[in-house]
Amino acid sequence: MKTETQISQQFRRIRTSLDERGRRQWAASEALALGYGGIAKVHRATGIVPSTIGKAIRELRAEEDAPTSGPRRVREAGGGRKKKTDQDVTLLPDLAEIIDAGTRGDPESPLRWTCKSLRQLASELVARCHDVSYRTVGRVLKLQGFSLQANSKTVEGHQHADRDAQFEYINARTKAQHVAGNPVISVDTKKKELVGNYKNGGRELCPKGEPTKVDVHDFMGELGRASPYGVYDVGENAGWVSVGISADTSEFAVESIRRWWKAMGSPRYPDAGELLITADCGGSNGYRIRLWKLELQQLANDLGFPVTVCHLPPGTSKWNKIEHRMFSFITMNWRGKPLVNYQTIISLIAATTTTKGLTVRCELDDGTYEKGRKVGDAELASVSLHPHEFHGEWNYTIRPKS
């Protein structure tokens, strides 16, 4: 016959391996083995209350009489602590009122979206006489289908009625140029960057506790800003970037295209008969910029063949090939690296590659480009501009002049 000490030692050894049901049924089996007075003895040795042991004995006997193949339950259906939402019927309505989308950002609301954390929600509920913790608020919100989410850029706002038709037009022109063996390039200016020991977005691997130290303030210093203008060859998956130290003007944009042609385009397309440029509608290469068209006339004269430009519809600049095929990878490549000087910028851009075979060449353009240069009607009239039948303001060809 086991003593109480032996039962107590045995219980301490196995209690962590058993769930609630297993512990009470083990205690019941010990009590049954001890016979008369077994429940009281097991209670003194383990601390399990006699009523729980008695309940477990009835469970064991019921299972012997009617064994079931269903799922094993620790407690009977409906057992255990009741949910807060069942105990407090006004909890859910009050929580829904606090986080209602219509009150987010309302300055008169006691809880604005800028401070809508679990602890703030719990504090507001406590102020409304609810006994709730922030952990419970988190569980309730999860059951209600809430989760932490960032903003989603899906609302494009007002779009031009011919937006899709313009994309189809650009696609058709691009395919025709590729079949003819002519180059198709996508152009744009990347975000201007401060040059100096300033923080650059992103993270990179460093020894623990030894991050790269940069200046606290990011006021523009002596080196100024870098203006990377990119040219992406759609057919060859190759890019060119001119890093300008002056203003981002149409003259600078066309000079970048000219440099790309001399360094990369001409060797790859020796028999080219036309150049197709896709660009967005704004900036230095916007469709309304007169200087852009005047400089393209000079480029066409230098190349000796027509230059066709197809602009992306307004509000769709991020659809430009260069944005997601080249610029995004440049940003990823130099993340977390301070752009301390122009040589660093050039090296990081030139080192950008992808698994799809992207290559990028980069050079510094130390030329000075005048801002605010005006182009009069007479100069614009000298451009051999031939608008296309479909949206001639977006699609046009500039032919060389002898």
Description:
- This protein is an alpha/beta fold and 402 residues long.
- It folds into three domains: 4-65; 84-143; 163-201 and 221-398, Ribonuclease H-like superfamily/Ribonuclease H (Nucleotidyltransferase, domain 5, 2-Layer Sandwich), CATH 3.30.420.
- Helix content is 40%, strand content 12%.
- The protein has 14 helices and nine strands.
- Strands 1, 2, 3, 4, 5, 6, 7, 8 and 9 form a nine-stranded mixed β-sheet that branches.
What is the CATH fold-level name of the largest domain?
Nucleotidyltransferase, domain 5
The number of helices is: 14
- Written as H for each helix and E for each strand, in order along the chain, the element string is HHHHHHHHHEEEEHEHEHHEHEE
Structural class: alpha/beta
Radius of gyration from CA coordinates: 36 Å
Shape call: elongated
Helix content: 40-55%
Mean pLDDT: 88
> How far apart lie the N and C ends?
117 Å
Which strand-content bin applies to the residues?
A: 5-15%
Q: Work out the count of structural domains.
A: 3
Q: What is the CATH homologous superfamily assignment of the largest domain?
A: Ribonuclease H-like superfamily/Ribonuclease H
Total number of strands: 9
SSE topology:
Blueprint: H1 4-14, H2 20-34, H3 38-46, H4 50-65, H5 84-87, H6 91-98, H7 118-127, H8 134-143, H9 163-180, E1 184-189, E2 193-194, E3 225-233, E4 238-244, H10 250-268, E5 275-279, H11 290-303, E6 307-311, H12 321-333, H13 342-350, E7 359-365, H14 377-381, E8 385-387, E9 395-398
Helix pairs in contact: 1-3, 2-3, 2-4, 7-8, 10-11
In short:
The chain is built from 14 helices and 9 strands. The protein has 402 residues and is of the alpha/beta class.
